């Protein structure tokens, strides 16, 4: 029998020796030498040991993908929280500067207020007196903030209307008949002057 390599010859000899030892105890052909196993043959041996069906491979791949998806979702959630924090800080800085918030920020603030007020309502069923006090304080603070915002907006609108009216009068766009400076209104008699003369 011819062998392609010394390794295959050593493996065949080891197998025959093992067979003889099992069948005929106490007999050995040759003392067993340590056979060097190459990396490739070790890998092939491991692959044979761990042969898996297509279904097992599919399950493992599915588990690996699920784990990767969880990690990606965690990272995305962390990024989303960071973005929300940054956006909140920008809006907060605008509020502190008393600058008018852009349309997008106003929508975001309304959405945030609605979300937080719903969360407060959900927690309103708690029977703890300390939490009830905190909820009441937060509600008062929110109401005060809304009233303050409404009052400021109302004042700005009134100021803008008054300024626009005064500008129209100064430019001459608005005039009132009969109110000519230095002349009496049309249609009035001089009766009031006659009464003064009689006194």
From TrEMBL:
Keyword Nucleotidyltransferase found: no
Keyword Nucleus: yes
Chain segments carrying region Disordered: 180-199
Ranges of compositional bias, category Acidic residues: 188-199
Subcellular compartments: Nucleus, Nucleolus
Main location: nucleus
UniProt keywords, alphabetically: Nucleus, Transcription, Transcription regulation
CC per GO annotation: nucleolus
Family according to the record: Belongs to the RRT14 family.
Function: Involved in ribosome biogenesis, probably through modulation of rDNA transcription.
Protein name per its UniProtKB record: Regulator of rDNA transcription 14
Species, as recorded: Candidozyma auris
Encoding gene per record: RRT14
